[in-house]
Amino acid sequence: MKKGRFSEEQMVGILREADRSPVAQVAKKHGISEQTIYTWRQRFAGMSADDVKRLRLLEQENTRLKKILAERDLEIEVMKEIATKKW
């Protein structure tokens, strides 16, 4: 996935700024399109910067746990295969 110019915390900050000022003005100030602000608003609706950090940490942990589970399932398959072989 392409790395964006702004971190998620910065995106939330720009959204909070867009809540106080006209969207067109905020978009021009930060060099992004108005549509980008609306897209971010859909993604981060009602979140604070702390919530976004927590969400990112949870996603990373979830990815790590999925890898661990996949490795465990593979080990179980190998053990079953070894157990069913006739020596």
From TrEMBL:
SUPFAM superfamilies, A to Z: Homeodomain-like
GO MF, one annotated term? transposase activity
Coiled-coil residues are: none
Superkingdom of the source species = Bacteria
Question: What is this protein's name?
Answer: ISDvu3, transposase OrfA
One Pfam family assigned to this protein is HTH_Tnp_1
Q: Quote the PANTHER family the UniProt record gives.
A: LOW CALCIUM RESPONSE LOCUS PROTEIN S, TRANSPOSASE
> GO terms for biological process?
DNA transposition
